[in-house]
Specification:
This protein is mainly α and 199 residues long. It is 66% helix and 0% strand. It has ten helices and no strands.
């Protein structure tokens, strides 16, 4: 698929090429992380749990090459911002060393292009990881009444509470997230979080 996309991006009309290159970068970064997304038993692993030495460095190089070539257009598409977010993860040696401030900024720009509640929530998580948990929590409280009581919302609430140092409240939110999840792998991942937090 990547080979076909690369060939297509080289042959497409010039105005469309940056968007295709951005999409190629995004897919390459995400594909590079696939070998580390599951453990040997098939259990889904969170970003924090993944062994980054398993990430495919050759695909990451493809991603950065495409990212460098996608910046020649007059406008930035959603794929440009999504690829930049994925690139920040790709270059980071660990979750704690990730440039979460840059990721939060990319999410803010992406939200201006594609206004979705999911993107707002992702930005708040990035803000919290960047050390601005209080600001993220206030913003979350502002939008929470407009959101359904879903697995994603409960997971974000749990993450923000955890980053604020409110472990007991975070445990309750993680348990609610587990109850709302429809995925066995997601539930298993959350239960590991709960076990780690409830010590």
């Amino acid at each position: 698929m990547l080979t076909h996309l690369f060939a297509t991006s080289m042959c497409c009309p010039e105005p469309e090429r940056p968007n295709l290159q951005a999409l190629l970068a995004l897919i390459s970064f995400h594909a590079a992380r696939l070998p580390a997304r599951y453990d040997p038993s098939g259990q889904l692993l969170s970003l924090e749990e993944q062994d980054r030495t398993l990430w495919d460095r050759s695909l990451i190089q493809v991603g950065f090459k495409a990212l460098a070539q996608c910046l020649g257009g007059t406008t930035l598409s959603r794929y440009h911002y999504e690829a930049r977010i994925a690139a920040e993860h790709a270059v980071s040696p660990s979750i704690t060393q990730t440039n979460w401030g840059a990721i939060a900024e990319h999410y803010q720009n992406l939200n201006a292009v594609l206004a979705l509640p999911t993107l707002q929530l992702n930005r708040l998580v990035a803000l919290a990881f960047a050390g601005n948990a209080g600001e993220a929590w206030q913003a979350f409280q502002g939008i929470k009444p407009t959101l359904p009581d879903s697995f994603l919302v409960a997971s974000v609430e749990a993450t923000l509470l955890e980053k604020k140092g409110q472990s007991l409240l975070a445990l309750g939110a993680w348990r609610r997230a587990a109850s709302l999840s429809q995925s066995r792998s997601e539930k298993a991942c959350i239960l590991r979080k709960i076990k780690k937090l409830d010590k």
